[in-house]
Design brief:
By secondary structure, the protein is of the alpha+beta class. It has a domain of 176 residues. It is 21% helix and 12% strand. The protein is built from 6 helices and 8 strands, in the order ααβαββααβββαββ.
């Protein structure tokens, strides 16, 4: 008997290709092909699950994912959704926390660059000045930290005074050294800025530099808008006439009031000039070394 030659059992190429194509289609339906090539690690979107077929509900954290409109329709949902936590505001400081600090070399360079220390000014080096850093109340009920640059011999007196103003909740608009206004006294007054030291530029001088309380760092202008002065150059209220009447109001200084008293108790003088200057306190004209009433030095 003649034996029939055996046939090789090879899988036809077209079947292999068909199987591969089917596998690709199945994987693309599951999203696996896209994930394999894109490497997307972003959070899942709200378009639904990426895998096919039934899945067990995944545990969720409170407030995550869409909430059902009717909590009773989903036995796995929490019937009382957790509210998103509201942003909390840091508690306001409750003390003035006044600190006396040296004027840094960087700040002194800014003072010089702003034209506030030049030939003829009584302050010739940063060691003659101090920074008084202190909390103050604002007109919107907040607490901010401000800085006054003053003569070293009045620094502790200023710290005590502004601690009292804080305790009285006296509002101050802002408190920034004059170099922030490029030494421009008028710009600082218009900004309702409380400030002290400034050896003023020639077109803004009110007194010879050597005698000037501001040029010596022994004068402070407080809330200029609420406490304006009569500018002798224009014979007008500056920075404006809105609060020229000495009636009670936020941020205003009145004779016999708590702000006036705090300065007077420390040996300072209010309106030490021949015209109304409600914002201004100084230790005397011409300006001389100050003796601290608490230490006697």
């Amino acid at each position: 008997m003649t034996r029939r030659p055996s046939r090789s059992r090879r899988t036809p190429l077209r079947w292999v290709l068909a199987l591969l194509l089917t596998g690709v289609l199945v994987l693309s339906g599951c999203g696996a092909v896209e994930d394999l090539f894109t490497g997307d690690e972003s959070a899942p979107t709200s378009s639904g699950p990426t895998s096919s077929g039934p899945t067990s509900p995944a545990p969720t954290s409170p407030g995550s994912g869409p909430e059902p409109t009717d909590p009773t329709s989903d036995p796995t949902s929490d019937p009382t959704p957790t509210a998103e936590p509201s942003p909390t505001r840091e508690p306001e400081p409750t003390t003035a926390d006044a600190r006396v600090r040296p004027v840094t070399r960087t700040q002194w360079n800014r003072i010089v660059a702003a034209g506030m220390a030049y030939a003829g000014c009584p302050i010739t080096g940063r060691e003659q000045l101090r920074r008084v850093v202190v909390n103050h109340h604002t007109f919107d009920g907040r607490v901010r930290r401000g800085t006054l640059v003053v003569n070293a011999d009045v620094a502790r007196s200023v710290a005590r005074i502004f601690t009292q103003l804080f305790d009285q909740e006296f509002p101050i608009r802002r408190m920034r050294p004059l170099e922030h206004y490029d030494g421009d006294s008028h710009a600082s007054l218009r900004a309702d800025n409380t400030a002290s030291y400034n050896c003023r530029r020639p077109d803004q001088i009110n007194a010879p530099q050597q005698a000037s309380p501001h040029a010596n760092g022994r004068a402070i202008d407080i809330n200029p808008r609420e406490n304006p002065w009569i500018d002798l150059r224009c014979q007008c209220w500056f920075p404006g006439p809105e609060f020229k009447e000495r009636t009670p109001g936020p941020g205003k200084i009145l004779e016999g009031g708590p702000v006036w008293q705090a300065f007077i108790d420390e040996g300072w003088i209010w309106q030490n000039i021949d015209v109304p200057d409600y914002m201004h306190f100084d230790t005397g004209y011409p300006s001389v070394a100050f003796r601290d009433p608490e230490t006697g030095r």
